[in-house]
Amino acid sequence: MEEERDNNKVKLLVVDDSLLIHKLIKKAVESEGYEVCATAINGKQAVELYEQHKPDIVTMDITMPVMGGIEATRKIRELNPDANIVFFGSAIDRHVLEQASELGIKYYMDKPFEKEKVLNILHSALMGQTYKVEPKQEDKREVNNIINPFFHALEEVMDYMVNIQGKVELIDSSPESQIEGGYSTVLGFIGKINGWIVLYMSKETACVIAERVNRETYEDKEDSFIGYSIQELGNIICGAAVKKINNTEKNLNLRLTPPGLFKGHSVSLLGGYANDRYNGVFETEFGNINMSVIFE
């Protein structure tokens, strides 16, 4: 028999294609008067679960398979014009904000996020209060082209989420590369230019990162949340970079495709020319984190 719900708790529907984000939001809010009544991994599920659970508030990812957050928001608003929805995304740029405004969405938050900010924005949305999102100061030197923002985002996210400071070192690339590693996540970007980003590292390095991000110890080095953590890390890094690029290079209109995760002993990067591939290495005491930005 299902446990009786606490009527004093605020019911929250978490919509994100990352199970890691489900977990992090749940950890952040459930001791603070919120109950995650359901989670969805795409917009279609979100609409169905909204109708079923009638939550007080929804956190909505933007880029998801099957149905994205914008379309899901439209459909939920058809069910309930007053639905309380907060956009939680990794690439909330001016184009997304324009669509949000058309839909009447006033609240949004970029990934990665802090517990205090999550609680503040949820409270503001519930109370109908103004919540001012302070824009990050953009370093104009980093956005003169579309390469540096990806590597700069890797540095920022490692500092913010893993508590490691460092710089990415650019290395030479070749038309075909064989990478020894355990986990690789791949994201595509489309718009006026197309390409993809590959983030890859050893199993040992991935395990340490996952433990630091989740503040947990994984005795089982095959735990699925290690992979989920690396996949979401790549999603957050690339989302931050694409947002910076779109806000500076206003004619590119880049969009990310959902991330894919690969696990194995090695990864081959095929296709393209050396001049169209940019490789960087972020060194840590527990192994290297590698990133390649590749253009079609």
Task: Report what the structure shows.
- The chain is 36% helix and 25% strand.
- The chain has 296 residues and is an alpha/beta fold.
- It has 2 domains: 10-127, Response regulator (Rossmann fold, 3-Layer(aba) Sandwich); 140-295, 3-Layer(aba) Sandwich (Chemotaxis protein chec), CATH 3.40.1550.10.
- Strands 6, 8, 9, 10, 11, 13 and 14 form a 7-stranded antiparallel β-sheet that branches. It has a 5-stranded parallel β-sheet with strand order 2-1-3-4-5, sandwiched between helices.
- Helix 6 (148-162) crosses helix 8 and helix 7 (203-214) packs across helix 8.
- 42% of the residues are buried.
CATH class descriptor of the largest domain: Alpha Beta
- Report the β-strand fraction as a percent range: 25-35%
How many domain modules? Answer: 2
Report the major sheet: 7 strands, antiparallel
Helix tally equals 8
Radius of gyration, in Å, reads 19 Å
The CATH topology assignment of the largest domain is Chemotaxis protein chec
Structural class: alpha/beta
Beta-strand segment tally: 14
Helix content: 25-40%
Low-confidence stretches are 1-5, 134-144, 271-275
Any guess at the CATH architecture of the largest domain? Answer: 3-Layer(aba) Sandwich
CATH H level, superfamily name of the largest domain: CheC-like
- Please tell me the overall pLDDT: 83
Terminal CA distance reads: 54 Å
Shape: globular
Q: SSE string, helix = H, strand = E?
A: EHEHEHEHEHHEEEEHHEEEEE
